[in-house]
Design a protein that fits this description.
With 323 residues, the chain is of the alpha/beta class. The chain contains five helices and eight strands.
């Protein structure tokens, strides 16, 4: 790309509309493609606007600015914004100057006020000192010739001890004498006997309530009716399970009694229930879990009518898995 050289005066002419059309078109292109040109153009434009606001523009530049530059609404907004910014700056400067003047005058006043108060304090202190000196000097003059009083001390007679006559014991009489030995105040106290604990075993208290063992663990399952089951159901039985219970939905409850048979995959009967009655739409059976292994089983339900004839109502097949 061809390098274009320009001066500040060229940028002024471009903004004021004094540039030839060919050069103006070239500057228009640079204002879009060249970042350095854009930065220089903005700097010159800001200086031009500030000069207009401050009244520094003279004719013919002033006339060109008002007739060409201010034609654009965007440029007029730039001028108004710069003018408002200048007003705010002037107000802030005025407030700052006022605060500085007040602080300066206040500090001067405080200094002279402190100086005057300090002089007053010195004068008062000197006067109090002079009064104290005069008082001490006067007291000294009054008491210097005063005789020193002597204190007469009388001798107090010392009381003499009274001596009482002692009776002489009769030697002819044998008077038994008892010797009393004074207690030794500082005698050591008799040490108290130490009690040595015996290592006797602590009796263990056996619990009176023994835990209940062999509590049956029940696993409950619900099987689908043969008419609704489309795939073989799989049930998981924990290894510690003692009993299993199955819920068997019924298609009909018109029979007097029911019986259920547990069969393995080959048809062998492993368990059978007694006669049961049901007024609900399901039967519930329960048998030991040890009868089931990981295999396929079925529960055959037989209905018994009023004529005691059995009728097969369906086989509930399932696969058991011991875990």
């Amino acid at each position: 790309m061809k390098t274009v050289t320009y001066k500040k005066e060229d940028l002024d002419d471009y903004l004021l509309g004094n540039m030839p059309e060919n050069d103006a078109n070239l500057f228009d292109e640079l204002s879009i493609t060249d970042d350095e040109f854009v930065a220089d153009l903005k700097s010159v434009e800001a200086d031009l606007v500030d000069a207009y606001i401050n009244g520094e523009l003279k004719n013919p530049s002033l006339e060109k600015f008002e007739t060409n530059y201010l034609v654009s609404p965007l440029r007029r907004e730039k001028v108004e914004f710069a003018r408002a910014l200048q007003v705010v700056a002037e107000k802030n400067f005025a407030k700052t100057s006022e605060v500085i003047e007040k602080d300066t005058s206040r500090s001067d006043f405080a200094f002279w006020d402190f100086f005057n108060n300090f002089n007053s304090m010195l004068r008062l202190g000197f006067a109090a000192l002079m009064i104290a000196v005069v008082g001490i000097f006067g007291w000294f003059l009054v008491n210097i010739n005063k005789p020193i009083e002597q204190v007469k001390v009388e001798d107090t007679p010392t009381p003499q001890p009274t001596i009482q006559p002692t009776q002489t014991p009769n030697t002819n009489q044998s008077t038994p004498t008892a010797t009393i030995s004074p207690k030794n105040v500082n005698a050591e106290k008799t040490p108290e006997p130490k009690i040595t604990p015996t290592n006797s075993p602590t009796p263990k208290i056996e619990p009176t309530v023994k835990p209940i063992q062999n509590v049956p663990t029940l696993a409950t399952f619900m099987l689908l009716s043969p008419s609704r089951s489309t795939s073989l159901q799989t049930i998981s039985i924990p290894t510690k399970t003692t009993d299993v219970a199955f819920g068997l939905p019924l298609e009909s409850v018109d029979f007097k009694n029911y019986r259920v048979f547990l069969k393995n995959e080959s048809g062998k009967i492993l368990w059978q229930s007694g006669k049961m009655t049901s007024k609900k739409s399901a039967l519930s059976v329960r048998f030991p879990a040890k009868l089931l292994q990981s295999n396929i089983y079925l529960l055959a339900v037989v209905g018994i009518g009023e004529d005691n004839q059995p009728e097969n109502l369906g086989n509930y097949s399932f696969r058991s898995v011991i875990k």
